[in-house]
């Protein structure tokens, strides 16, 4: 079974690469809707879904240099044809995290890794629609942050379509819909986030609306279930319904279900057990789709272990924020096989100082504070000598410093030169077989309920 599944997946990936290398244009999903089924004793797969447009291509071109202009991608950027929009695939991505993955953190992350895919914080569609005169505050980003994905949240089709159209001017490389957030404000009062998993037909309509109003590919980030709706079959129904009714070909799967019975979002990240076997089951049953694994991954070793077993991509969340140096410094060399970074943390801080002081030199209502700019730096020396003293000095310096340069001058003497000047050890990443036996635990192959699903 494993060899047959691997062969199917390799054939699909080969055909995809050939099509992309030839610049094939696939008709828009609005022009043709075609659903065909193929079943076999090995696996059940989607043979043909709603045709979609290859709106972006992944290839081996370098990212924009950090030495180039830091002008934000705003409305003036939408007609800039110098951005090739051609990057390595999203084999590693950093999860969207509210109050964390803002412009400042993403700038720091891009200084450490050139190839990881970055996600914005979730932006509610209504916010974009009602802030049309202040869009840069929510959507603008420096061009060197490519490849970057905008995550939208919402449950109103009209507003999701309008938000996608407004965001299209900013040149995001993908637009993602949040179907996984269990927060009470989102899934409860907001009636979106993970609650959308209970209505897959609506999500399919939403993805069609988003895709029809942007030039970028679209994707969905979801859990494996909600409350008692947590069977593998129900997850597959969700995936199939969306893929058959929209141009969505990429799903980010958080391998836990969500509990909406009052537990906190933090407990929703730990209490429901991880079921990676569901993720690998999706790889088997939907080889024509792309799935990124999310949830519980804390190291590059685990990322590579998942990819060795067939994972298309892996998304890392809090580990990339709370321990950015050992997590992100090995992405380019270990995950992508690209030349590894030889940059030190001192050099990263020098670059970040230039960025920060240029931002602080701007005037206007959206000017950040020194504390906001320093926030993503606070974990850069996690578990290193001097980290505790540096954080105490940082807390005191917030009240006295008005520039990043002065802040670093007053605090960095707490960190030994050996830590500041060390570069990532290319030999430090070992091999783990975290998922070596996963195919022995897969759920039974998905059996399509074609007529029932298509008539919902």
UniProtKB/TrEMBL annotation:
The keyword Zinc-finger does not apply. Keywords: NADP, RNA-binding, tRNA-binding. Gene3D superfamilies: 1.20.120.1460, Aldolase class I (3.20.20.70). InterPro entries: Aldolase_TIM, DUS-like_FMN-bd, DusA. Residues 1-25 are annotated as: Disordered. GO terms for molecular function: tRNA binding; tRNA dihydrouridine synthase activity. Residues 94-412 form the DUS-like FMN-binding domain. The keyword tRNA-binding applies. Pfam families: Dus. It comes from the Eukaryota. This is DUS-like FMN-binding domain-containing protein. The lineage of its organism: Eukaryota, Viridiplantae, Streptophyta, Embryophyta, Tracheophyta.
